[in-house]
Amino acid sequence: MLQGSFGLRVAGLGIVALLGLSAVACGDDTAGSGGSTASSSTGDATGGAGGMGGAGGGTGGAGGVVDVCAADKSLCFDLNVPADFKGTPKSIFIGGYKMLPPAGPPDAFLGTIANPMVTPGMPYSVKLSDVTYTGDFFIYAVIFNMGTTMPVSMVDYVGTSKTPVTLNGAPATTAPIDMTLAP
């Protein structure tokens, strides 16, 4: 599995747990729900069921780490965390929607990262592997400080990609997503 500079755990959002998606983290502890392999600037997590799991990353020859973002079925992007960010995040949820604004459950559950190390004013890199969903999706991210399945107004942070990203098995990326307080 890929190694980050810090460990993290993957935890499920209630709605994700209800759907039976699972994930295992590489780092301090393992548990929870999620989707594809979720890797961040602070670690990674590997997901399993629901058509999205798999072993995720690995180490390359001569002790090198495989670049998740160059691999097939990967999706990589940054979350632009505002300089005035407040809170201690419990998790980050990443979903895909066919249309904006997001309403109801996402069309694609892409990943969940527990206890992320979010720094005000610094981008938070998200790297997903083994993404088996196909189609065009707007990426929707939530940094949960208090909420668990729905963002709490003026406490949690939300953001969406400005354009849809095409998921088709090839490496995919999207422009950084600006995170703002949930309305």
Helix content: under 10%
Low confidence ranges: 1-34, 42-61
Structural class: mainly beta
Net shape: globular
Strand portion: 25-35%
Topology:
Blueprint: H1 14-18, E1 23-26, E2 37-40, E3 43-47, E4 75-80, E5 91-97, E6 108-114, E7 123-129, E8 135-144, E9 157-160, E10 165-167, E11 172-173, E12 177-178, E13 180-181
List keywords for this structure.
183 residues; 13 strands; 7-stranded mixed β-sheet; 6-stranded antiparallel β-sheet; mainly beta
Would you mind describing this structure in some detail?
The protein is an all-beta fold and 183 residues long. It has one domain (14-181). The chain contains one helix and 13 strands; from the N terminus they run αβββββββββββββ. It has one helix at 14-18; strands spanning 23-26, 37-40, 43-47, 75-80, 91-97, 108-114, 123-129, 135-144, 157-160, 165-167, 172-173, 177-178, 180-181. Strands 1, 2, 3, 4, 7, 11 and 12 form a seven-stranded mixed beta sheet that branches. Strands 5, 6, 8, 9, 10 and 13 form a six-stranded antiparallel beta sheet that branches. The longest helix has 5 residues, at 14-18. The protein is globular and about 35 Å long. The termini are far apart.
